[in-house]
Predict the structure.
Amino acid sequence: MQFDPDTDLYAILEVAPTAPGVVIRAAHGALLELYSDDKPRRALVNQAYNVLAQPDLRHQYDTFRDAQKAAREGAENVAVLCPNCGTRNELSPARDNRAAVCGVCRAPFSKDLDTKVLRAKARKTVTAAVQRRGDLPPQKLYVLGGAALLVLALVGVGLFLVPQLKLSGLSAVRLPAPPGPGAAPPAGAPAPAFPAIPVVAGQRVEAAVSSLTAAGWAIGARYDVTASGGSQHVVEATKNGFNARFYFRDGKLAEAEKF
């Protein structure tokens, strides 16, 4: 009987080469039930079982398999994970240049196995599959973990600094002094500075209102508005003729503006 050197019958039945007959029969029944809707996979399972369940055919296959293994000894193998079923295949570029296929599902890997392109692709395939399965070597796991933490840190800093910059920019604004009742400010007199903002980003509504009141701000209108970012609570305040609005999202100060 002719056997395909690229097909591993033990891998198809998911048993060890030393598995006894009772284990092979149990694996055959379990896999047929598992792949009840997959006719091609069931056909492969039946093909492997028809060989391994018969002692004489199994002996022939084991002899053929050992001869193939001995022929490949000393050759530099390439580990390739099947993109279709995920099975790990040990392929030998030095053996031949035939199209390589998965030993379980027969999915093709490459037209020419003896190329640098395949080796690079194999490394990427193995690395990607190992990452998905959580078996990444510790040193690479540390690198990936550090990169992920760095990204999260940068995002967090950005979310914190944007509101802070808006508030600090508002507190540094200098506006012309409002005209007094019936009189203009003296010529050459410096314009009064915009009052300091005694609140910080993320402060709760009532805490912010208390801070503004304590700093001499007069609280004006309070109302809710709906914008593209969702519902916001707005608090208007006045001090020394200067007006500001404070926007709260989810009960926390997110932005402020002069008006």
Observations:
- Residues 111-115, 171-178 have pLDDT under 50 and may be disordered.
- DSSP finds seven helices and eight strands in the chain.
